[in-house]
Amino acid sequence: MTRRVSIFGSTGSIGCNTVELVAAGGPAYKVVALTGGRNVAKLAEQARALRPEIAVTADEGSLAALRDALAGTGVEVAAGAQAIVEAAHRPADWVMSAIVGAAGLPPGLVAAGQGATLALANKESLVTAGPLLMATARAAGTRILPVDSEHSAIFQALVGEDIAAVERIIITASGGAFRDWPAEKLATATLAQASSHPNWAMGQRITIDSASLFNKALELIETKEYFGVDPARIEAVIHPESLVHALVGFVDGALMAHVGPPDMRHAIGFALNWPERRALPVERLDLAKIGQLTFRAPDEGRYPALRLAREVMAQGGLYGAAFNAAKEAALDAFIEGRIGFVEMAGVVEDVLEKMTDERRMNAAITLDRVWETDHVARIRANELILARHGQG
Ligand code: NAD
Ligand code: MG
Which of 114, 267, 273, 344 could form a disulfide with 152 if both were Cys (CB 3.0 to 4.6 A apart)? Predict the structure, then answer.
């Protein structure tokens, strides 16, 4: 039977890997929607190969270029954030949510309400609106499958298990680009240095978030929201080899580890093939050659992001939305050269301290409230950055 699939963020790192696996499946899949950002050439190339019903660019200024590139193919074209949300309303059996950042939430929420299968790479939608996303999926009968190496690993370790028998969940962190740098040197870290990951090939934003451990911070919250476990039972450990992705500890003391090469095609393919397992084009590990696996505790003094994630999990409500937006604004500022690498965490911490209107922050999570909180947090972050550095 042909499965109808849509890929949101198809031109990114996760998106391109998803396109590759779907293309390899040939007639098993009918592509409904592909969406991208400014890289219209890549989006058009994918659309020519996969012939979706519609190709959408987030950038309204790129609509004419996309239309030209797909002339004569019969593929519909559209542009803008609203067009992406509309594409999410088109019925599909399997939807990949792989837009980066909070921008992935609106189409992700629509897909969660469709009653099909949602492969969720966009961890920001769980961080900003976890309870809303999970409740929307539950009400619609949508199965959400995590597409983050750690969360796919946890999901796989839990097959056939009772969540009540889980004592702890451990997610691993490579430690990112600066794991072996002395703490004093971090202030000198450049954009190019932060954008190069020792083990994984990923989009630039998540690569920098790996170096600051903000990615692991988002993933602690993602674990809490997706699996519904008490934050006190969730740990992160540094594992430089990136071969063990997560471990689940049970009440009888057993630890089930998921081991595999650092290749997102595993988690993507697992979600695509679920509930079956099929052959995937990933490396098979030679354990004797690898020889040893090492682990060490993260230094929370060096990585304030982990401590901030614990505070956000304790507060709940809209703090996740504020945290994510402040992090995105600080990351933008680092990428644009407006602040240094170690300043990002300070900006996020200061924004959280400013957003303490309890009634507002603890109101029920709705898309409007998430958006308003996101907006305010970005403004606060940019005010703080300007106050520290001025216009230049
Ligand atoms: P990426 O930057 O490579 O790609 C992002 C995609 O989103 C692109 O298609 C881009 O055009 C699109 N996009 C960007 N801004 C947009 C906007 N405002 N509106 C609509 N579309 C927009 O990112 P990535 O590394 O593939 O990551 C995608 C998501 O998957 C992120 O949430 C990330 O945290 C998560 N994730 C990625 C990896 C990985 O290996 N890359 C692993 C785990 C989780
Ligand atoms: Mg991950």
Answer: 267
Q: What CATH number did the domain enclosing 384 receive? A: 1.10.1740.10
Q: What one-letter code names the amino acid at 228? A: G
Ligand nearest the Cα atom of residue 8: 1
Same domain, 135 and 181: no
**Distance from Cα 78 to the centre of ligand 1, integer Å:** 19
189 and 82 in one domain? no
Domains in the chain, number: 3
Report how far ligand 1's centroid is from the alpha carbon of 103 (Å).
10
Identify the pLDDT of residue 391: 58
Answer whether 13's CB lies under 8 Å from 202's CB.
Answer: yes
pTM of the entire predicted model? 0.98
CB 261 within 8 A of CB 281: no
**Cα-to-centroid distance, 14 and ligand 1 (Å):** 7
Residues 6+ apart with CB under 8 A from 158: 166, 227, 248
Q: Whose CA is nearest to atom 17 of ligand 1?
A: 103
Cβ contacts of 353-361, under 8 Å, gap ≥ 24: 354/380, 355/319, 355/322, 355/380, 360/318, 361/315, 361/317, 361/318, 361/319, 361/322
Mean pLDDT, consecutive 10-residue segments, the chain of 392 residues? Answer: 96 98 97 98 98 98 98 98 98 98 98 98 98 98 98 98 97 94 93 94 96 97 98 98 98 98 98 97 98 94 92 97 98 98 97 89 95 97 92 54
Specify the pLDDT at position 121: 98
Is 292 contained in some domain?
Answer: no
Task: Please indicate, yes or no, whether residues 177 and 48 belong to a single structural domain of this protein.
Answer: no
